[in-house]
Design a protein that fits this description.
By secondary structure, the protein is an alpha/beta fold. It has a single domain, classed as Rossmann fold, CATH 3.40.50. The protein is 12% helix and 29% strand. It contains one helix and six strands; from the N terminus they run E-H-E-E-E-E-E. The protein has one helix at residues 11-19, and strands at 2-6, 24-28, 37-39, 52-54, 65-67, 72-74. The termini are far apart. 17% of the residues are buried.
Length: 76
């Protein structure tokens, strides 16, 4: 299964590390994740590639920005 994490807080790192043991895990907006978690760029990203896309609990604000550990970026 291909799983994409779009932002979130440090708690998501533990989830990504655990899921990466049995699945292909990708992320945007984190640094210092395990080598088993793949960092991807939002530019030219096709969400249809992923079986699961996880957004941060706070979701997307009114300006269509996603808050991440590193910065905010526009989702749409």
């Amino acid at each position: 299964m291909d799983i994409l994490f779009l932002g979130g807080d440090k708690r998501y790192k533990f989830i990504m590390d655990d899921l990466s043991k049995n699945h292909s895990v990708y992320q945007i907006g984190f640094k210092g994740v395990s080598n088993e978690v793949h960092s991807v760029n939002f530019d030219n990203l096709s969400l249809s590639k992923f079986d699961v896309v996880l957004f941060p609990i706070s979701g997307i604000n009114d300006n269509f920005e996603i808050k991440t550990e590193l910065r905010k970026f526009e989702a749409f």
